[in-house]
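Bug: token stream looks shifted between consecutive jobs. Job 1:
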Amino acid sequence: MQGKKPGFTLIELLVVIAIIAILAAILFPVFAQAREKARAISCLSNLKQSSTATLMYTQDFDETFPLSLYMAFTPAPCVMTFYHEISPYQKNAQIMQCPSKPRAVDFVVGWGNVAAATGLPGLCVSSPPIQFLSYNFNYAVIENGSPSNIFGTDPDRAVKSLGSIPFPVETALISDGVPTIQPINRPPDYACGLFYSPIDARHTGVVNANFIDGHAKPVHAKLQTDNAGNGYTCAGLDGQVLRIYQVTDAGPYQGSQELWGIAHQRPDGTWYADNP
């Protein structure tokens, strides 16, 4: 008669469980980093496609960039935006959604807040429909236009052309981030008002961005904090809390909370961004 086989003792089971827990603690962050890296790569691909769509638009309209927003009247008064203008060239609304933060702003809800505050009508219908967005654009390149049927006449906000950008490789176009509507705990050097465009370093301290020449690349940034180490925040158009970052890479946007402005170079070789 065979004897009963000995089982695991309680101590042995606890040791095995402890080893599994240690391995999980080591490997789970690695897996999470790998997933985020894959999302960041997919996001960069989105931005490459959106830059291509924007450049296709400029070629169809005498090398001029789309307007940021303007009033349309067919079939009824509604507001067209940059996102509407390039949508037919993308034919996929998900291109404007970052996999790491696909619902960074509900644009329909957010525009409802803007309309309530300004008296503007609702958004125009687009094909494909636009609702959730993850990306913002450089308001110094994608301008209001002048005269504008929303903002009136302002020569400083005239439509921009490809030929008006002296350094297209260094001038940002679209990047991780969404518009703000109001401050919460704003930095002392950043107003966070309506339609400000802070970057969002959502890829582990990295902001993905594309540039006027069509290339896309990561831009490094750091969280901006007060003296107590608390991060500064603003409210997005739909009320979501947005953390405020500053660009750390050398170049025209270094130290800025936005990838805003057209790149310029001084005689001594230093860079700055402005909207001349």
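Job 2, same session, no restart:
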Amino acid sequence: MVSATYILDLFVGSFVLGSMYALLAIGMSIIYGILRLINFAHGAMLMVGAYFYIMFLAMGLDPITSLPLSMALGAVLGVAIDFFAYRPLRGGPELSMLITSLGVYIFLENLVRIIATPQPRVFPLPEFLKGVYRYGDFSVRVIEIFTIISTLVLFAALVLFFTKTKVGIAMRATADDLEASVLMGIDANRIIMIAFALASMVAALTGFLWGGMYGQVDPTTGFMPGVKAFIAAVVGGIGSLTGSVLGGYILGYAEIYSVGLLPPEYSGLRDGISFLILIIILLIRPYGLFGREVERV
């Protein structure tokens, strides 16, 4: 007999995991919307952002300062990757940029291995996020609440940014038609730079949340979340922020409930279920749930 408390635990766990998938998928959709690039290096930015946070703590900075600094440094790294790796390939075959993104991921992962060693690092969670709220048999961690709120607030902020600001509207115009936007006077390189900065900042924040949830990070931390974020973005309609968030939550709930409700011997199907959802959605709606049928925001 499954208790109500257990179901509630699964609900919260699904919400938290889906939030992290959604954040990472948002960044992938921002890049894809403008460049039509599936940026597999985006998963590595999650890992690098977590290590940046650890680095700033090791330098003696407090957590409240270290988090925004790690996000800012992540943005700088994202812009640098675009400038040195992707910009020279623009206008060429899309496959070249896709392969380059895989190369960037491998480079970043191995660079962190050299600098920080392959051993997992304990992720020092700030004191104010270590608490636990208890209501009878049910309990929820402060970091879980923080993760959910951060995702919803950031999503709302990005929607406002893309619909109410000149830069955001220019980014949407560039995503709709890059050549036409250039003819209208939009600086495409500047817009793409802002897109990489935004996406990388979100990935760095996700790295902080991921490390805080699971208590440690290592150089391979970004691989599977990056794959799941890609699946979430495709399920929701890659290029759509709304679709990416929805896709992230679909994956989060599917994974947690499949592990929590199926017999233990089927727990290994967790990753397979994500890919099964992807296949089913693509068979029914090849462009995803929101792909090309709603305005991108």
